[in-house]
Design a protein that fits this description.
Elements (H helix, E strand, L loop, with lengths): L2 E8 L13 E9 L7 E5 L19 H11 L5 E6 L12 E2 L3 E2 H17 L4 E5 L9 H4 L4 H4 L5 E5 L6 H14 L5 E5 L10 H12 L1
Parallel strand pairs: 3-4, 3-7, 8-9
Antiparallel strand pairs: 1-2, 2-4, 5-6
């Protein structure tokens, strides 16, 4: 079984945020076949979710914990540590931006959390995965062009259900087409699914991501 450890960090980036939300944040770490050199995978919850959302048990579909267990059993040579930060706000969600209205959650991830990872695990390759987080003004399908230079150096995975209730499949396809036009290597997959009950997508993308980072 994957091994779970819970830590708490005091995030300088969240001190004095507009909602006075806690600066002390829970960090859930889950080791899957990991070693001292295994990559770190940061998991960011979708809007209305946080780190504990990844630990919810589902009974009508495969949940994230079951995904990790199956990966552990079927990919013995692939090791990694999943880091799940508490990112909940008084707005009931997060877009991982530095916001004068909500707080510096981009810095929380890229500075506070990364520093915690380096202090606890040393220098490791770090990847990131997540789910949808709303608000069209920050839709990556509209501004992905600004990140082309960075994305050329990364492994990019896009997975989506073609019956998504929030039409995320449209945005994903736009991103896929833009990346393809720029000859940026990426993995794009469509599934006969909607928005929910799709944690099993990770059965393919997480091992591939971990392997590429190893």
């Amino acid at each position: 079984m994957p091994i779970t450890e819970i830590n708490t960090i005091s995030a300088d980036s969240l001190q004095g945020n507009p909602f006075n939300d806690p600066a002390d944040r829970e960090i859930v770490a889950i080791d899957v076949n990991s070693s001292d050199s295994s990559p770190i995978l940061i998991g960011l919850a979708g809007f209305f979710g946080s780190n504990r959302s990844f630990q919810n048990r589902l009974y009508a579909s495969m949940d994230f914990q079951s995904v990790l267990k199956e990966i552990e059993e079927k990919n013995k040579d692939t090791g990694f540590t999943v880091i799940l930060p508490d990112t909940m706000t008084s707005m009931y969600g997060n877009q991982y931006l530095n916001s004068s209205a909500v707080g510096n959650y981009e810095d929380f991830i890229t500075v506070d959390l990364v520093n915690f990872i380096k202090k606890k695990y040393g220098e490791r390759n770090i990847g990131i995965f997540g789910r949808s987080s709303g608000w069209t003004v920050f839709d990556p399908s509209r501004n992905i062009e600004k990140r082309f230079d960075v994305l050329k150096e990364m492994a990019v995975f896009l997975q989506v259900g073609i019956h998504d209730e929030f039409n995320i499949d449209i945005g994903m396809k736009i991103m896929h087409e833009k990346l393809e036009k720029e000859n940026i290597v990426h993995f794009y997959e469509e599934y006969d699914e909607g928005h929910f009950g799709t944690d099993y997508f990770y059965l393919k993308s997480i091992p591939l991501l971990a392997e590429l980072l190893s």
